[in-house]
Design brief:
The protein has helices spanning 27-44, 66-73, and strands at residues 8-12, 15-21, 80-88, 96-97, 102-109, 115-120, 123-130, 138-143, 149-154, 163-165, 167-168, 170-173, 181-187, 194-200, 208-215, 221-225, 231-237, 246-247, 251-253. By secondary structure, the protein is mainly beta. The protein is elongated and about 75 Å long.
């Protein structure tokens, strides 16, 4: 039976479920749609309104009554197709250093015309590139954010939930360090960004104590006067404005 369909997106973070209802229904086709719904939602593993169990190592398909699916999804008919848009945040979820590459994993099923979009604190949503999933619907996307960035999968009509990749400046101490001056560089160049010189506490509580403060200059360098005894130090640049604090590697000052 041919059906005239229209499509919208029912979004449940971090997945968006695309529903295509038809104007007519058929008992056998409705039952098949319900089974397809269960399998696809199981793959998304985030739509708990239908009480689909969490993902197992082996593929699982669960039957869901078409009338239950219609009610839970707020549809007028039991005749529909299901599509999925889902993007997973990188692991680990800790901030990444400026210049690093991150991998985003996604799932696209039953949805055409999908693109990857991004936004930052300085710019609205914009298309990065069109995406083409593998035959099983999975995606692996490599991105190199230069500032804390939100990513999402979207079509011209709707979008899935976004994932946020936090970015820190890259901070490097220049050698040699002395007990009177701590110098270094940071990227990207962020003039005026606060610099905290911290010394490690031998007893570990707290782990680090701020002993001096400075700022980044127009060239992306800093030189902070300090009064230090021998020990282990680091520099932390905390610019804000779309960047998380970034720390240098620890170095030992001998005096």
């Amino acid at each position: 039976m041919a059906c005239s369909k229209r499509r919208w997106l029912w979004s449940v973070a971090p997945a968006a479920i695309a529903i295509s209802p038809a104007r007519t229904s058929d008992a056998a086709c409705a039952a098949g749609s319900a089974a397809a719904l269960a399998g696809t939602l199981h793959a998304a593993a985030n739509l708990r309104r239908l009480r689909v169990p969490p993902a197992d190592p082996a593929p699982v398909t669960d039957a869901v009554l078409a009338t239950l699916a219609r009610t839970k999804l707020g549809l007028r008919s039991t005749w529909f197709d299901v599509g999925v848009l889902s993007l997973t945040r990188p692991a680990p979820v800790a901030p990444v250093v400026y210049g690093s590459t991150v991998q985003l994993n996604g799932l696209v099923r039953g949805v055409d015309g999908v693109s990857l979009e991004e936004r930052t604190s300085k710019s609205p949503w914009a298309i990065v590139a069109d995406v083409t999933p593998a035959s099983d619907g999975t995606l692996q996307l490599s991105e190199q954010p230069t500032i804390t960035t939100d990513y999402r999968l979207a079509t011209p009509g709707a979008a899935a939930a976004y994932v946020r990749v936090r970015v820190t400046p890259s901070v490097t101490l220049t050698a040699p360090q002395t007990t009177s001056t701590v110098a270094g560089t940071e990227q990207p160049v962020l003039p005026g960004a606060p610099v905290l010189v911290q010394q490690q506490n031998p007893d570990g509580s707290p782990a680090w104590t701020t002993v001096a403060r400075g700022t980044v200059d127009e060239a992306g360098t800093f030189s902070v006067p300090v009064q230090l005894g021998p020990g282990t130090i680091r520099a932390v640049v905390a610019p804000g404005h779309g960047y998380w604090p970034g720390a240098s590697a620890a170095v030992t000052v001998t005096g």
